[in-house]
Design a protein that fits this description.
This protein has about 400 residues and is an alpha/beta fold. The protein folds into 2 domains: about 260 residues, Type I PLP-dependent aspartate aminotransferase-like (Major domain) (Aspartate Aminotransferase, domain 2), CATH 3.40.640; about 130 residues, Aspartate Aminotransferase, domain 1, CATH 3.90.1150. A 7-stranded mixed beta sheet has the order 1-9-8-5-4-2-3, sandwiched between helices. β2, α4 and β3 form a beta-alpha-beta unit. α1 packs antiparallel against α10 and α2 packs parallel to α10. It is globular and about 70 Å long.
Amino acid sequence: MIPFSPPHIDQEIIDEVTAALRSGWITTGPRTKQFEKDLSEYNGNPNTLCLNSATAGLEIVLRWFGVGPGDEVIVPAYTYSATANVVMHTGARPVFCDVKAEDFNIDPKKLESLITERTKVIMPVDFGGMPCDFDAINSFVKRADIQAQFKARGEVQEKLGRILILSDAAHSIGARYQGKMTGSLTDVSVFSFHAVKNLTTAEGGAVALNLPEPFDNKAIYDYLCIATLHGQNKDALAKMQKGNWKYDIIEPGYKCNMTDIMAAIGLVELRRYESKTLPRRKQIFDRYKEVLSQYSWAELAPYETDEKISSYHLFPLRIRGIAEAKRDAIMQKIFDKDVSVNVHFIPVPMMKFYKEMGYSIDQFPVTYDNFSREISLPVFIDLSDEQVEEVLAAVIEAVETSI
């Protein structure tokens, strides 16, 4: 069976994890701090906080910004549930926005009709690793008429004076937009290092801070370190210094720090990301495109344009002229050929919890159309050239015997 997206665990990673285990630092320590510095250097943003998940990162930023009951946060209807769930955790209300047909990303042209005085944050999602239209989104929240609708609640919101852009960049580490790296494209970006991601730490995530003046990103980083470790004003590394055992709790914080065992994996993954991971994933994308573009039924999403370069995380194939049931039947035929495929994603408004809240996928026709015809093909660096051809053969036969 050709798997969908297994992690690449080799001897280099095993050796680094072993070294972490033998060092005595297995929770947050020197490797986590080094990983944070390396990520900031790679992405070109001032400060980065590593945590145990991207979900934790999204939620802690919402809470730092003062989002709570009565507020609204705009998210794309086409995303994983975590993007909306974190909004629910704060007591705020997710407001879903339809996406663009070509690249699955939030449609900036549809934002204006969703803005109210309760809107505090917009959370675009870089679907499949392709950056959103950040020039349009960033300039939109700075428009005088949009800023005039913003009703700040609390010191942080007053300091920004506008809607915060919190990018769900779970898929897009290593992607570029106008020559800049994801992580430095807007106010705050959050990466995922889950096992299926391009760059993994088994679980894990990172908050890339890139807030404008007069914000002090280092001071915010320092605060978030406290907020994500029980509100404790010293971490284990600091308390181990001679005579520095005494600490205080300054707020009832959360527990979502990254461990050095996780960071050990990430340090190796990041060192070879540009030289090994991204080039191999691009090769697979290019071969899929080369073959599938010959078929009139294949609708392919862009992954490189004049302005954008994807991180090559997902290869979403859409089949023209079919409905959801036919897509499911095609997928089953592919599975029967021992090839794993997937769907990204079942839109959040289609989920039971959100349907019972009153959301309806009927309000998001582009989202539903993309979902109903989408099949994600396997992409991972250990996928051999021979396996790529097997995937293509299975997909082509499944489609052509079904339509």
